[in-house]
Design a protein that fits this description.
This protein is an alpha/beta fold. The chain has a domain at 10-241: TIM Barrel. It has 15 helices and nine strands. The strands form two sheets. It has a seven-stranded parallel beta sheet with strand order 1-4-5-6-7-8-9. It has a two-stranded antiparallel ribbon with strand order 2-3. Helix 6 (123-132) crosses helix 8, helix 8 (150-174) packs parallel to helix 10 and helix 13 packs across helix 14. Homodimer.
Amino acid sequence: MMRQAGRYMAVYKKLAEKYPSFRERSETTDLIVEISLQPWNAFRPDGVIIFSDILTPLPAFGVDFDIEEVRGPVIHSPIRSEEGLKVLHPIDLDRLKFVGDSLKILRQEVGGRAAVLGFVGAPWTIATYIVEGGTTRTYTTIKSMCHTAPHVLRTLLSHLTQAIADYVIFQVESGAHCIQIFDSWGGQLPPEMWERWSKPYIKEIVNLVKKKCPGVPIVLYINGNGGLLERMKDTGVDVIGLDWTVDMADGRRRLGSGIGVQGNVDPAYLFSPLDALTEEIQRVVRCAGPRRHILNLGHGVLVGTPEEAVAHFFEVARSLQFDTLFQNNTAKDPNLVT
């Protein structure tokens, strides 16, 4: 379940009061392991996601950042010129030892009972933070940079591609069974621009990782990806995450049965009556078909989500009778299941 550990859990809030700095919580091995295991101890999901952030590796290749209470991530020296590019250097994985150590411990703690999941940000999404200086609603600076300083942006994206690929391989070699790439802000680009400014760099990461770690499954998620599904398929990833604005049946038709899909229950359903949540989970699973589907939310768990609803989500998933579910479904719509 995306954004599995954290803000909605009482046990996490209590720990956050003791350790108020997000960076301390996400960059200290003991705290990373403890927080990552909180939902595992409570709900026993099929995947344990390392507690981290897509910006965590930035200082390891030359970009410092802070996380402020109200503003969120802040990069005090945005990169918008050739001069700014001079701070970049190859990723120093020794500075990310806490990530590697945490993954190793999580593998030991979970054993063979669940997959340990790592993740990274896609180059375009990481670049938006580095260029804009933090979060933005308009993306005007980086979008205009595509036209006013394309050589600078390409150099930045190429550097990020190599750094992120190295970081993915590091996570896999440290114990991650699977990696999810978040191009969180890729959906802010028109499809033609995503083809030019995001897709080639994701594709290169996938190629580099598959050469070094051929067996590792890679998931790609883009927030607002309804206009990009077919283009996402061409990146070489194994699974495409759907956000909740895409109808699962439509997404499956557009992608075909040869690639995995992940998702895509609307996180707001976890605020609904449990019967409604049950029905929606069943509907999503039926629409996805009997193969290559990872049941998940269509975005992260929302602040304030009732923990009993999260528990119910996993209980319903475990209780599904696939033979019955798809036998009934095929009878109703024989064209739905390939």
